[in-house]
Design a protein that fits this description.
alpha+beta, Immunoglobulin-like, Rossmann fold, seven-stranded mixed beta sheet, 11 helices
């Protein structure tokens, strides 16, 4: 599949004449697209640009006059448009209260039809709404053509689906991008039916574009296709908090069928990440164990006990190194993350100084316990946030992982003990037990969430 994934395709789905399945209001349609992976691929749909088919019920009978249309186009433009918009003095379309306005953006296709590409939030009971900032890809908005006409419609939302048109206007990106907070670009919202009926009609309100900024937003796939090399390093927690590995209640205990929760996590998460590493050679380290021959505690020892060549071939190689390592070490402690984070950070720092193909480093830590060196780890993460590096922490077992949630600073920027703020959020914590029975796609989405 990876070899075939050489382009991005945008699908736009619309339906006409749907059956009304509700009594007191209109249907609330949901469209689900299924990808057939059994050998029959979607190339015909993608290449045909536009496909319309009649809808059928589950028993095969026609669903009234309902039809579905799928428009496909290749995406080669990764520019996005950031909008800030508001309106004033909109027409009131409600008898009780005020209008609940929202905006719809439409682009014109090659056959002249208008295609809905974006709908804003609904602002309740307000004739002078201010919408939250929103993004639309430039390709979705106007095929990347700055002079192509865009239609914007303003509606009054009704819960029964009979939304009332307040007014509409048309513009081009060339006009819209002139907007700034100090000098907004304004458009009269025109309701053509009302203008024809009402003498002296001026408009149905004014829509003000306060910001229209075009930026380039590269995706994960853009970087991979652009030559960025991802380097994955695996760190496994061998502290004694998981219990004696000779007893079944230990997370390191290998059951008669040859697995444990560590192995399951290594395999499940590894399958997600290995496809993005070109050479499939992964450095794999253990931490928190006493290792031979001196039996000193180490927090960054190669699981294959080869300091000069700590690489394992593929996920299977990591699994084999883990199995071979277990009988040779003694689980100990404490649970220190900072040594292995700093270890990978040194390679990331060295890579930034080389004028070669771009490289990005991902450290995957699989742990079962409460972190011991929290302050040192915070400092290590803040330092690493300046480098091309991300950290995925997978928690196995049922321990208290509140410290891991803290490091995954989704609710606020992580700070070092001295108060230095991390440049960005580079840590993603994954509570593995929540995903053991989930689809692979759900785990993949969570695992890769903090990789930019």
């Amino acid at each position: 599949m990876a070899a075939q994934c050489v382009t991005k395709v945008e699908l736009n789905v619309s339906c006409d004449n749907l059956l009304d399945k509700d009594i007191g209001s209109k249907s609330d349609p949901l469209c689900v697209l299924f990808l057939n992976s059994s050998g029959q691929q979607w190339y015909e749909i993608v290449s045909s640009k536009k496909l319309t088919r009649p809808l059928a019920l589950r028993n095969g009978r026609p669903a009234g006059k309902g039809s579905i249309t799928i428009s496909a186009e290749e995406i080669k433009d990764n520019r996005v448009v950031l909008f800030e918009m508001e309106a004033r003095k909109l027409d009131n379309k409600d008898l009780f209260g005020k209008s609940d306005p929202y905006l719809e953006f439409h682009k014109q296709t090659s056959d002249g039809t208008w295609l809905l590409v974006h709908r804003t939030e609904v602002i309740k009971n307000n004739l002078n709404p201010v919408w939250r900032p929103f993004k639309i890809s430039l390709n979705s908005l106007c095929y990347g053509d700055m002079d192509k006409t865009i239609k914007v419609e303003c509606y009054d939302y009704d819960s029964d689906g009979s939304h009332d048109l307040i007014g509409t206007f048309q513009a081009t990106m060339t006009q819209l991008k002139e907007a700034s907070r100090s000098s907004p670009v304004e458009f009269e919202c025109i309701n053509e039916k009302k203008r024809q009926k009402k003498k002296g009609y001026k408009n149905s309100g004014v829509v003000s574009v306060k910001q229209c900024e075009i930026t380039v937003e590269c995706t994960f796939l853009d970087y991979i296709m652009g030559g960025c090399q991802l380097n994955f390093t695996v760190g496994v927690d061998f502290t004694s908090s998981s219990g004696d590995l000779l007893f079944p209640d230990s997370l390191h205990y290998i059951s008669p069928n040859g697995v444990n929760e560590y192995l399951t996590a290594i395999w499940s998460v590894g399958v997600v990440v290995q496809d993005y590493d070109a050479d499939k050679m992964f450095p794999a380290f253990g931490f928190g164990a006493q290792i031979p021959p001196q039996w000193q505690v180490s927090h960054e020892f190669p699981m294959n006990f080869s300091p000069s060549n700590p690489y394992c071939k593929g996920i299977q190689g990591i699994v084999e190194a883990y199995r071979a390592c277990l009988p040779q070490i003694k689980l100990y402690g404490p649970t220190n993350f900072s040594p292995i984070i700093n270890h990978v950070a040194r390679f990331a720092a060295a890579a930034t100084q080389q004028q070669t193909a771009s490289q990005y480093f991902v450290l995957l830590i699989i742990t079962d316990g409460v972190i011991t060196d929290l302050d040192e780890t915070r400092q290590a993460i803040v330092n690493a946030a300046k480098l091309p590096m991300s950290i995925i922490i997978v928690g196995v077992g049922g321990a208290d992982f509140s410290a891991m949630e803290f490091l995954d600073s989704d609710s606020g920027a992580l700070r070092s003990p001295s108060g230095e703020v991390a440049n960005r959020d580079i840590v993603q914590f994954v509570p593995f037990r929540q995903f053991q029975n989930a689809p692979k796609e759900a785990l993949a989405q969570c695992v890769l969430a903090e990789i930019p």
